[in-house]
């Protein structure tokens, strides 16, 4: 394609807005992107160390750069979208899907029919949609048919054929579902007025229909035609009930598209809500697979162009979570409060629910992808240099310094590895000193792993704040492991995450999966440690009760417990049973001691 070195190509790039294209040595397109400043954006690929391997691989493959200069950033956005669809570069996000969406068709004919279809034919017919599910289409059709009697036959209802009496009314007429235009029982003027009302209903505007029916009902009531007036009232109730279900914001908000985005390391989820007269008339969520280090702003801009084009949206205003570049003529609003903010929050909730639904499905059908995503998210959230595939968490347990113990729990790929859990009796600390206990147990754990040449974890979690974290760090310093293993502390009160030598804690989102795994680790360590502590304390109390008897030591107490299983059974045992285990002399002392008590 070109033998010009990349640094020369970069230096020749303009500083204005435009679209750039990367090609490899085989002249295959790698990536298409837009930029406000072409030279600055393209140069950034070669001037920094990229966190993700995909970007590093892309940069290594780039052998040629093409660019197209455009007047504005909005033009660059539209051109980028078109080029991605046309060229389908390997490293660009995929916004297209091959799903065939349902439409409502208003046939281009005299006395037009209204029916669902998945094929759009350019024959002059009107198409409403596309809708995200056939269920929505059916609900809307049922509503329309319950209010307006429309024909369903496919006859050519020209004036000549009707006047010639070519057709006869069918069962639909006798059932009241059609007013018989085929025999001239319904005029074209009346039928077209119904069609105008239906157009408005499909757009979410019920005002015209309600006004017309209320006028009819009042006129019929004044003429004492109460049965017919009741039928009209039933239609009004149907329309009002449907409208009340769909209206969730201020009815003054009309012809607005709402977009929100939720993303993680590998995927982004863009939700689209279309509003008309205060009602949501369409909702759709798109999943976007990231290929490089795309920002949410760039992904949302691409998705907006794609979604608006797919659903033929003509709304002139957008509600979005942050400022973005859009086509000229579109108004962009970033709501901060009130009804507009509530509808944006609703869109974001939809995106989060869709994302969680995908996660739940992936857990079942692709557990490796689920694990990889969580590990990548933890790496990002906790600012780690490697994914924490192996995590260990420590917790101390004691009551006023008695029976001090510690627990170490191990997680592999975000799940407990219970066979690797370890208990520790604190040996070098007297009294309730949590800091010294933590220092001892961390030292013992990793000194042994080093001696046995066992793999070290990528992350250590300490149950406690800055004090416990500092104590654990002393042990890592002594072992020469400082900087080789990431370590954090978690304080219970506000779930603060502390890092070494950083006085400002990190606060993760309460719903964050990273925080949930850390909490799970902490809770497991506490459960495991406290169970060991209770067993040890209970055993100590039992032994002290037996050892308090004259002539009974630790060995004798353990021998009796091994045989009788509990102190209660020892108390109830006969002298003969005791004699078989410890001899007649000791048996008599134990028997008499319990009887005296």
How is this fold's topology laid out?
Elements: H1 6-11, E1 18-23, E2 29-35, H2 38-47, H3 53-61, E3 64-69, H4 73-87, E4 103-106, E5 114-117, E6 126-128, H5 134-147, H6 159-163, H7 171-174, H8 188-202, H9 207-222, H10 226-246, E7 256-263, E8 267-276, E9 279-289, H11 296-310, E10 317-319, E11 331-333, H12 338-365, H13 367-381, E12 390-399, E13 402-412, E14 415-416, E15 422-425, H14 434-451, E16 459-463, H15 466-478, E17 486-491, E18 496-499, E19 502-506, H16 513-547, H17 554-564, H18 567-572, H19 575-582, H20 584-596
Parallel strand pairs: 7-10, 10-11, 12-16, 16-17
Antiparallel strand pairs: 1-2, 1-3, 4-5, 4-6, 7-8, 8-9, 12-13, 13-14, 13-15, 17-18, 18-19
Helix pairs in contact: 4-11, 9-10, 12-13, 14-15, 19-20
Number of helices: 20
Main sheet properties: 8 strands, mixed
**Amount of helix:** 40-55%
Roughly what is the average pLDDT, rounded to an integer? 79
Q: Specify the structural class.
A: alpha+beta
Oligomer: single chain
Number of E-state strands: 19
Radius of gyration: 37 Å
* C-alpha end-to-end distance: 100 Å
Uncertain parts:
244-249
Strand content: 15-25%
Global shape: flat
Keywords: Cytoplasm, DNA damage, DNA excision, DNA repair, Excision nuclease, SOS response
Subunit structure: Interacts with UvrB in an incision complex.
Function: The UvrABC repair system catalyzes the recognition and processing of DNA lesions. UvrC both incises the 5' and 3' sides of the lesion. The N-terminal half is responsible for the 3' incision and the C-terminal half is responsible for the 5' incision.
Main location: cytoplasm
